[in-house]
Amino acid sequence: MKNKFKSLTLISFGLVFGILISVNLSVFADKKSEAKKLPVEDLRIFAEVFGKIKADYVEEVEDKQLLSEALNGMLAGLDPHSTFLDQDHFKEMQQGTAGEFGGLGIEVGMEDGFVKVISPIEDTPAFKAGLQSGDLIIKLDDKSTKGMSLNDAVKIMRGKPGTSLNVQILRKGKDTPFDVKITRAQIKSQSVKAKLIQEDYGYIRVTQFQERTGEDVAKSINKLFDENKKPLNGLVLDMRNNPGGLLNAAVAVSAAFIPEGELVVYTEGRARDSKMHLTAIPENFIRDPKNNYIEKLPSEIKKTPLVVLVNNGSASASEIVAGALQDHKRALIVGTKSFGKGSVQSILPMNNGTAIKLTTARYFTPNGRSIQAKGIDPDIVVEDGFSGLMSREADLSHHLSNPEDKDSKDESTNSEEPQNDEKQKTSTKADDGGEALKSFKPVEFGTAEDKQFQEALNILKGIDIYKKIN
């Protein structure tokens, strides 16, 4: 038995070692100055553990499952946004960026070993059921999410439209979890909505940054100008609860409002192709050179008074747009501090149809501000009544530090904050919080009940009055 185990360990070590060498040789060749020897001793321990599981675990486990779990753990330990995508999840992610998929309609991450809601997508089952940014999902039907990989959780949440899923939620400010039953739907996320609020004032809401978002924003601007039959006196750009999306779409939306050639965002990372300076030029956001939708916009849009609405659920690409418009003094940012996700994730396909989503860079606003774990501070704070109950990037375990915090260290894995201990010890017995959610009706953005929207409109009218007086 001992010889058999030794042989199995050697085979496993050879397999793992060979794979790592083949994958990493090109990387080390490109970074000779930084190259380090492969950690042979650590790899040997990995292979020994692999062999021990194969030989002694109570049930037989397939090699593929062990290696997949090892990859999941390797990436999940880096930060909340890096993850391994198996073939099915990779395909689903591609469908999501195209704007259509089946499921609940939430952007999720990980926190304390549980699935965490970053932002519900507007007009989806999760949004209508009252899920909020910062909610911890601790059970999906009868399965605890504690220790579950993000991929596995997403697989459970996605499914055939019309089928139901019982979601158990732990919310800040509530002592015990509560259950919410959500019916899955075909998620056809319309990323841009627009309307003429009243004469001379327009409203554009961007819920996600997808492949066609830039073009759809341009079409909306043209439509508003046509409906008003003259240039607008003000425009509200609403990016509340926008979890982000495609970087080039964020550049496209920014380019609609700032002069061509101006810097929108730059990124800094270790790899050469992670260092980018993205300016408002067609090459950075238009795939078809014959369809430059930005140049077809009315020239007045570059000077139209603009208010941008953000909140705790505004993350990533929406923070890029808000930061760029703020730095160029092109817009007033109104609302509450944004989420603070200032990192770039690259989708790196593997040879077998899988992929990894890997954090490869931090992004910076035109004035050199890093938003990572800090967020965008609004020029005018208007509370929505929920921001104090929601969490941000800085609250996530293993979050990437902000480079401006020279002495900052990620100690989130050893946090002594009572709320984290409470999360670990909380009973999984649900209370009647689900009953309250049944009568919960989320505020419809861009309506008379929307306090932040009304304040944005008042600001635009005040600017208009000031211009007329002066």
Automatic annotation (TrEMBL):
UniProt GO BP: proteolysis; signal transduction
SUPFAM superfamilies the record matches: ClpP/crotonase, PDZ domain-like
Matching InterPro entries: ClpP/crotonase-like_dom_sf, CtpA/B_N, PDZ, PDZ_sf, Peptidase_S41A, Tail-specific_protease
PDZ domain residues: 90-158
Region spans: Disordered: 397-445
Keyword Lyase on entry: no
GO cellular component, one term: outer membrane-bounded periplasmic space
Keywords: Hydrolase, Protease, Serine protease
Compositionally biased intervals (Basic and acidic residues): 397-412, 420-432
PROSITE patterns: PDZ (PS50106)
Molecular function, one GO term: endopeptidase activity
Keyword Hydrolase in annotation: yes
Protein family (similarity comment): Belongs to the peptidase S41A family.
Name assigned to this protein: Carboxy-terminal processing protease
